[in-house]
# Entry
Amino acid sequence: MPVLLILGLIAFFVLSWWWHRSRSLTRDCKWREDRSRAAPGRSFHHCVACRAETDLPIGEQPRHCLRQQ
Ligand SMILES: [Zn+2]
# Structure
């Protein structure tokens, strides 16, 4: 019986670690600049993680995921 308990605890920790990891991974945006879609004087960025799109003044980088907004 204690073996089952230990196995259950290990499974619980592995699952919670995996859940936390997958959540924190999807929270991060991976912005890519797309110069072909940028308007003059702007820089266009799209996120490969959540497909958010934004355009900013040239030289600026988006820092946050736009999916929550
Ligand atoms: Zn994103």
Q: What stands out?
A: The mean pLDDT is 85. The chain has one helix and three strands. Residues 2-57 form one domain. Residues 2-27 form the longest helix (26 residues).
